[in-house]
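Cont'd.
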Amino acid sequence: MRLSWVRALPRGLWGSPGVPELCRSLCQRPARAPTERGDTAGTPKPRGPQRRHPTEGDTARGDTPRGDGDTARGDTPRGDGDTARGAASAWHRHFQEIRDKERGPEPRDHRRGHLGGDTSWGGTSRGDTFRDDTFKGDTSSSPPPHHRSHQHHDDSHQQDPRDGDPSEPGSPRRGPAAFEAALRAMERWPPGRGGRLALVEAALAAMEALGVERSVAAYNALLRLLPRGPWVPRGPVQRLLFPFPRQQECGLQLLEQMERYGVIPDAETRFLLLGVFGPRSRPLRKVQRMMFWLPRFRHLDPHPLPPQPTRPGLAAARLGLHRMAGDPGATVTVIQPPVPDTGDDEGSVQPYIVSSQSPEQRELLAQHDPARAVFVEGPFPLWLRGTLLKYFVLRGDPLPPHLRDPPPDPERSFYFPLELQLELERGPWDDEEFDVDEVEEGPVFALCVPGAGDRRTLARWISALQEQNPILGRAPVVFRLNEGGADPREGPQTPRLGTGTPPGAGLEPPEEGERGGEPRKNNGE
Amino acid sequence: MAAVPLSRASDGRQGGRATEPSKGTGGTAGVPSRARDRRHGGGAESSEGQTAWQERRAERGNGTAASRSHEGEQHHGRTEPQGGGGPAAAPSRASRHWGRAGVPGPTARGGRWGLPLKEEVFPYPEISNEELAEINEFVGPVEKFFNEEVDSKKIDQDAKIPPETLQGLKDLGLFGMQIPEEYGGLGLSNTMYARLGEITSLDGSIAVTLAAHQAIGLKGILIAGTEEQKAKYLPRLASGEHIAAFCLTEPGSGSDAASIQTRATLSEDGKHFLLNGSKVWISNGGLASIFTVFARTEVVDKDGQVKDKITAFIVERDFGGVTHGKPEDKLGIRGSNTCEVHFENTKVPIENVIGEVGGGFKVAMNILNSGRFSMGSASAGMIKKLIELTSEYACTRKQFNKKLSQFGLIQEKFCLMAVKAYVMESMAYLTAGMMDRPGFPDCSVEAAMVKVFSSEGAWACVSEALQILGGLGYMKDYPYERYLRDTRILLIFEGTNEILRMYIALTGMQHAGKILTEKIKAIKKGNMGVALGEFLTRLQDTLGRKVDLGLIGDRGVVHPSLQESAKKLEENVYYFGSTVRGLLSRFGKTIVEEQLVLKRVADVVINLYAMTAAISRASRSISIGLRNHDHEVLLTNIFCTEAYFKNNYAMAQLEKYADENLDDSIKKAAKQILEKRAYICSHPLDKTF
């Protein structure tokens, strides 16, 4: 359908300068473009599969002169023209070169300044506008599924952030610095054209791998890649007609990812979106809602986990035990370090054992009748965000009823009676109990997260416990291990939705093994 | 209808306005004649053995003894058919307590429990003229000594009582006040002991040193010691040559006997115990040479099982193996010596067991229970002194051309101090007087009430006194801050007030519960009289009735000037009875766990006892024409009116359920805090975005 007749309408009707944009945006809507990225299937996009629209570059280019003007008007604090980089122009390329040259000795521009990679990502250099919320407050979110599908969404990417195995733990390529480097690399492509949307989407997909998925500064940096002005609808009518859907989807996608990770947008995010999409656009509405709700949800979780996913190992084991044994008096001890410090096998690898026991549990165990057995049970799964731990419990059978409540000793309290001798019985009509099926459970004496679930390791745990609980030397210890059966990962996988989906509302942790290059778990060896 | 009181009704509402069937209105329908007879009998008994004046008053009150009543007595009268068959000590204590708290009444019970006849709270107990003269003889020199030779400031600063002061105290015989004369003590009665306590309390450190020595330290020997033990130890203790200490508290054991770790093992020859363990916070621990020590011993009980039980020992420092730590640095009562005491293989001869082996728990309880009553007079003495000091200041200092004493807010504070002092004095001497009656009546609940009331009153009064003085009171140059520091311990030692509240409330509940069960049994057996009486009183209650327990009126025991107060007391007593009943029917045995409920019960009981004591004393003062008795009446009326409203509030709360009277919310908030072991609210300056 040709809409060029619209041009014939009096300009004043459309709010003068907006008409060409309106036309373009109307024209853009039908899915004319080839869906290069069909592999994002499953993304519940209201507008069908994501695609890189060939007209996008045109849009940018067509608007470049005015876009520049907008940028100038658009009060950007970084005056270096970042925002106009959506335009593929000689000027852009020129700028890029200049910037790359200057980048050598010292960080020059603001983005460099706060992306400039050190550990204090996000807001050290510009503490006013950046609040480094991201490392504290996103407890309720769970990690999204892996954006594998995004990984090679555009073959012409010269440097995929993952290519160098960036997710390798401890890799210098992880983190803000790596993200910035990747961003820069992606910026370079295509050098002469826009393609900003694809760039942002690719960056979004790579964020988790680079470890910056919880940094609001990183999202702001992405937003800064988008051009200011050209996508702002002109006039109310254009705004009504879903202008720039493709571009707004991109903004929404970014916001959705922030939401998923519980990253609270800050004033700058809003400001950037305002510059890119204009007031009352869909991304702006969304960011306003997010700014309303996310802070309110931030402290919902009464038992927050650290924002960074913990990797299986000593630290995760400690964390898990602290979470399970709520008693603040409980002591978590490393019974066997993963690498022995001394001895013959110094430097070799052995399964670690981390154990937790509270004074109360010790007391309970001391009162345990050594004639009756104690049981080592497990492994039971414990998820810490995406990390699966296996733990074992040392427990006893439920006490027989006659031992459960010893009759109160009348000669116990020096000052006041501990019980009354009354014969006030309840009548049958005084039944105030609910019908509740109660499962009787025996006391749990200790918890442990070992590096390996084999009997030998557990026996070592028990013998270490014996130092403080001599009764374990006398009572029989029965191992009730369901070997191999308790690993939920070995069961059928729940089918996962694609990348755009918020991951199962955090009910189910994501699968571990899919993460590139990351060892699944170092137990079991 | 009969079914209703049979059980703890689940809705507990009926407890709310449920009433005592036993109404003091003598001729009320529904009060069986048996009860009335018994009450008359009791009243008659009560007049025996009283002084002439008392007889006169008792005569007047005789008829009323019948009509005034309290739930406890009345229930007994009605529902307890088997005469003197009740168990001996414990229930009697309980019943006496409720009788007292609920005003008059214990008379009716006298013979029935097989105990000696008990006097009543009306009239207020008196001492004979000879005794009065005797006590005044003591008071003079002691007062002089405290005014002239005791330098409290220095004692507080040095954290030590100088030896010459100690020697002076010994010379005055203050280390053996309650030790009988045949052992070289002064042999003072409880009343006289309380009187001297008023003066010794002028210095907190000395008061605590003396109390640790004789109120608890040597009390064990005095109460439960054998003749030999008494003859061996008491004379030297009385002279102050030896100082005693009471060693119960351990690092892991405060009021829980089960966690006492100190152990005494019998030697092989069976003649000695070897004592091992350590005790903390022992008053006089560094000075004492005689210790009353409680330790675990193995005892073979009836069924041949070996059990750990507590035994009390007299341990001399010379037995060896007794060491003590350095004196603790304390907030108040700094001059008193408090330290750890360690026993290491201390050889204690078997003759030094107090009571019997394994009977230490009872000994400890008796000692603790008997030591408390004097705190009332001691606090009162201190407050009286404070009133003198602060009124001097308030009447001289001028602000805005007005004396401080002309400001209403300052006047209010003086009134408060006077009222508290008056009431705690009344309670203390009433209790002491009751304890002095022949037959060793058990007044531990009353003593506990005195302790709770007076310690809290003292703390409030000292705090108000400091407020009157303003900045001056805060300065170390003046004695007031020392009073404040010294007073703080009163709320803590000799059983914390919280624990004593439990004791007061639970002892009462136990007694009230017995009465209720007996009545239920009677109804179950088909005693229609009881059931009918119950029904009628309830009916009357719903229709609204005038409470008249016989305190006032033509045959009343209270002076007409106190009519209003007495009426309030009667009303409170009456409705408290029904409240307690409601609580029992709602909670039954589990009321032990309901500490917030019990606290309110205890508060009401304490107030009732305080009102009773004040009314009784003021009544007596008017009747015999003591100086300034109109002031006493004023104070009594002030106190009773306030206490009446407090009681009503507490009882209104008691009739509500936990979700309405905030108990649930309180517990929930506390739980959330304790889970995190911190104050969990976010900082007011925190932000989320």
